[in-house]
Structure formats: C-alpha cells, structure tokens
Write a structure and sequence with these properties.
Strand order of the largest sheet: 3-4-5
Oligomer: single chain
Largest sheet: 3 strands, antiparallel
Number of strands: 5
Radius of gyration: 19 Å
Structural class: mainly alpha
Strand content: 5-15%
C-alpha cells in the first residue's frame, strides 16, 4: 500500500490527466498556453474535476463552480456556513439583494466572511426574479474562496455582461468566422448559456438534453434550429427560477429514456 502522500500525488496526477483529456475534447479551440498549467494546479491542490462540473473554461479562463466550492469544503471538513440577509442594503422593490456569508472551517474558527449582491443589472434577464437566491450563492462562493485560498472567480459571481464579454478580442474574431458557434451581437453562444443554466441550477445535463429535444420536437438537440434552442433556453431559465422542484420532477420523467446526444 502506498504512503498517504504518494497516494495523494498519484490521485492528483490521474485527475489532471483525465481533466486534460476532457478539456482538450470540450474546449480545445479555447485553450491557451497557460490553460493546462493552471488546470494542473487546480487538479493537484483543490482537486477540481471537469467531469463532475466543478471547474469550467469560459473563453480561455478557468472558473470554479458553486458545486466545486461546496465539494472542496466538504473534503476539508468545513463545519458550517452561515448566511445573513443585509436588510439595510437591500431594496426589494428594485430587486437588489445583499447577503453576508461566513464559513467556519473548524469549531474554533472565527469565520471567513464574504458578501454577495445581485440586482437586475448584474444577472441574466432570463433569471430576473431570482436575485435573492443568486446574491446568497455569490456570498457563499466568495466566503468559501477566501476560506480555502481559491484564487479563481466562481462562475456564479460573474455578471451576465461580464460573462458575455470575458472572451476578449480573440474570441470576437472567432465569432465572425464561426457563425452560431461564436458570439452573436455581443451575446454568449447558446451552448455556453445552456451550460451555465445547468450548473447554476444544479440540473442533470443528460435529462436537460432529453427535455430539450422533446421541447424542440426533434430526434436530438443538434437537429434543432437556433431559434428552437434559444426558445428552450428561455423556457428553462424561467421555469428554474420560478419553480425548480417542478422542473426537476419533469426532468426526472426522462430518466428512463435513452440519453439524447448533443
């Protein structure tokens, strides 16, 4: 049996190799010379997995997800997370919400504090009405990143405008040549929007694809037109924001059907 330190190194290397293969297959055109070295660090220290949706590449930059931060806290035996609504900073009539989150790494910890805010101007129009929940998620993410020394921004902390423009000039050039695979009129491509919704609301990707094909009336999601996919994404966002439990129940009805390829 390998010593604990050697076993940890072996697992980290194995995770990096797996992450690297997935990164190349999913985002090969977006990888920069610094992407894989950064991915190696993320695989070895926080132990973030691409396959499990814990880390995401958006336009050449790595972002940790809410699920990834919670998993990291669980592995490090975090004892608790406390969130408090900052009522004096909130304005319900305009949809502005601010939360304070405190992460306690151990029983004697004084806590690591993070603040999160959300309002209609810094969230997607597809999730207007869910600003309170988004603000709490952002606060928790910031506190967790501070507690465990995660230098990456979390994808949930990005305002929608920043998500759309984070690509920079190199991706704008791609958009002009890639058509629907790139950005359209300054908006993120549909695939990115769908991936963000799936991660933001913790949905099963396979079931979402099956639901999408059914919604669009096609054999698979790839057979649907751009307008059909965009309509589905709008519908998914609205349902997830208003009644996620009902949406999950409907998605589960597709569990026995074969997974539809994207």
């Amino acid at each position: 049996m390998l010593p604990k330190s050697k076993e940890k190194v072996r697992r980290s290397r194995s995770l990096f190799r797996k992450n690297a293969r997935l990164a190349v297959s999913r985002w090969g055109e977006e990888l920069s010379p610094r992407s894989l070295p950064e991915l190696k660090r993320l695989s070895c220290d926080p132990g973030l997995s691409i396959e499990e949706g814990k880390v995401l590449l958006l336009h050449g930059n790595w972002y940790v997800t809410h699920a990834g931060l919670l998993r990291l806290a669980l592995r490090r035996r975090c004892v608790g997370i406390r969130t408090v609504l900052q009522e004096q900073l909130c304005d319900p009539t305009s949809g502005r919400w601010v939360f304070k989150a405190t992460v306690y790494k151990s029983l004697g910890s004084r806590g690591f504090v993070g603040y999160g805010d959300a309002n209609p101007s810094n969230v997607s129009s597809l999730v207007h009405g869910a600003e309170m929940r988004i603000a709490e998620t952002r606060a928790v993410n910031r506190a967790l990143r501070k507690a465990y020394g995660v230098g990456l921004c979390s994808v949930e902390e990005l305002g929608w405008a920043r998500r759309a423009n984070v690509s920079g000039s190199s991706d704008q050039r791609k958009a002009s040549t890639n058509g629907n695979n790139g950005h359209q009129n300054g908006q993120p491509r549909l695939r990115d929007r769908l991936c963000l919704l799936i991660r933001e609301h913790h949905l099963d990707a396979g079931l979402v694809k099956a639901y999408a094909a059914d919604f669009c009336g096609t054999a698979s999601l790839r057979d649907a037109s751009r307008d059909q996919v965009e309509a589905f994404i709008n519908e998914l966002a609205q349902r997830a924001a208003k009644d996620r439990e009902a949406l999950v129940c409907q998605l589960n009805s597709y569990a026995k059907q074969p997974e539809v390829s994207s």
